Amino acid sequence: MSEPVENHQPKGDAVKAADLFVRCLEEEGVERIFGVPGEENLDLLEALRTSSIELVLTRHEQAAAFMAATFGRLTGKAGVVLSTLGPGATNLITGVAYAQLGGMPLVAITGQKPIKKSKQGRFQIIDVVGTMRPITKLAEQIPSADKIPSLLREAFRRAEEERPGATHLELPEDIAREYTDATPLRKVVSRRAAPDPEALIAAAERITLARRPLLLIAAGANRKQVSDTLTAFIDKTGIPFVSTQMGKGVVDESRAGYLGTAALTDGDYLHCAIDWADLIIAVGHDVTEKPPAIMGHGGSAAVIHINFTPAEVDDVYFPELEVVGDIARGIEALTRLLVPSPDWDFSYFHQVGLDHARHVLDRGDSPAYPLLPQRVVRDLRRAMPDDGILALDNGMYKLWIARNYPAFQHNTVLLDNALASMGTGLPSAMAAKMVFPDRKVVAVCGDGGFMMNSQEMETAVRLKMDLVVVILRDDAYGMIRWKQESMGLQDYGLNFNNPDFVRYAESYGAFGHRVESAADFFPLLESCLAAGGVHLIDVPVDYTENVRVLTEELQAKTCLLPQR
Asked: Around Cβ 564, how many Cβ atoms within 10 Å?
C-alpha cells in the first residue's frame, strides 16, 4: 500500500488538481475514458465520479488502449485511456504503439507515486515517461497542478493533428491532490491549410498528360471528407482505383473502376494494373503501412504524392511531385482543374478488374467443412448491411477479407496494417459499437488473437452490447503457419488446443454457437445479428487454400501486359 499523501487545503477559489484535470478533459469534449484504475488514480477517479465523463472499466489495460485508439480512429477525436503506474502502464504499451503506428488519436494517462515525498523506495516505479517517448508524439510528467491546463491541451492537440497518433501524460499522486487557481484552456479548432495552388496545377497537368493514370488510396485518406471528395474525383475523371488495406472502403468498392485491395505486397491481380500504370496518384500514402511496391529504381511509373504531410522517402517510395496540405481540399481542387483526357487508356485496367472480380468469387459457395476462407468471406458480406462494421483481429483471415470482401462505406472494415497486433478484434468491435450503437458490428478473430483479449467478453456483456464475435478456429497461429509452409519448412511450433468456445461464451453470460456445416454459417450469423446481446460463433476453418491460392496460384499468374 502507498503511504498517505499530504492533502493541502485550498486557498480562496482554488480547486483540487484532479478536479481541474477532469474539467480540462470535459473542455476537450471527452465523453468516455477506457481503462483500469489503480490506487494512484483514486483522486482522479473521485473527480470522474461526479463528472459528465463515463468510465468504461475493462479487464485489461491493453484492451482499453485498443478501444480508445479505435474510438479515435472512428471519430477523429482523441480517445482517452487510463491506467495506474508500473504494470498498469506497461500493459498499455502495445495499445499505445497501435495508435501511434496506425495514425489513431489517443491520449494515455497514467498514475505515479508521489514525486515530492515518498517512503516506499522504488516499489512498482519505472520510468514510464521515458518508456513512452519513443512510441508517442508527446510524453510528459505533470510536475505541478498549475501545468495541467497547458499540458492537457497540448496532449490533445498533438494527438489529433495530422498525422494523428498517441500522446501520454503521467499524473503523480501528490500532484493530483494539490490545489490551484488555474483554469482549463479553451479548445481551439484550426483548419488545415490547403495545398499550394502551383503544386495543384502541376499535378493536374501531369495527370492530363499521362496515358495510364491510376489512383492508389491509402491509410491517410481514411477520413470522411476525403471519402466524399475522392468519390467526386472518380465520378468526373473515371480514373480506376486500388486501395491499401487501411485505405479500404474510402470509396465504395462496388463502383466501376475498383480493381482490388492490396492485401499482399506484390504478385496479386491488382499489381498487374500497378505495373501497367505510367502515373500513380498516391492519396494518403503512409510509410508505416505495408504498401504495394509501387515504385522501384528504374521503374517507369511516376508518382504524385497527395497527403497532409510531405512524403517519407524510402526504397520503394520517392514521388516526383508532392501536393501537401488538407487532402480533401486538394482533391476537390484537382477535380475542378481536371478535364478527362481522350488519350487516357483504361482498357487493361478494366480487364484486371474483371479478372480480380472473377478470382475472388471462386469457391465462395464451396460446401467444404471446415469452411474455406472464401466461403466465410462471402457469407460475411451477404449477412452484413452496407453500413455494418467488421472489426478484424490480426491473422490469416485479414488477408482474405481485404482481398475478397468489398467495402461499401468508409470505415466499415477496421483492420490494422501498421503495428498489426493480435488481440485487437474484440476491443475494436466494442469501441465501434459504442460510437455507432445503431449499426451492426461483427468482430472477426482467429482463435489465437481472440484468446489474447477474450476476457473483454465480460465487459461487453456488462455493458449490454449487441455484438457478434466470429472465431475462425484452426487450432494454430495460421498466418505464420502459411509462411512456414510457403518457405518449405516443416510444420512445427505453431499448434495449440482451444477451450470449448460455446461454453466459454456462456460462462460470461453471452450466447455461444458452433457451426456444424458450411450451410450453417450464413443463417446463424443473420440470426445472431438480429437477436441482440453478445453472441460468439465458433467457425472451424480450413486454411489449406492459403498455399494453393496465395502462393501457388498467384505465383503462376501472368499479367500479359499490352504493348506500351
From this structure: 8
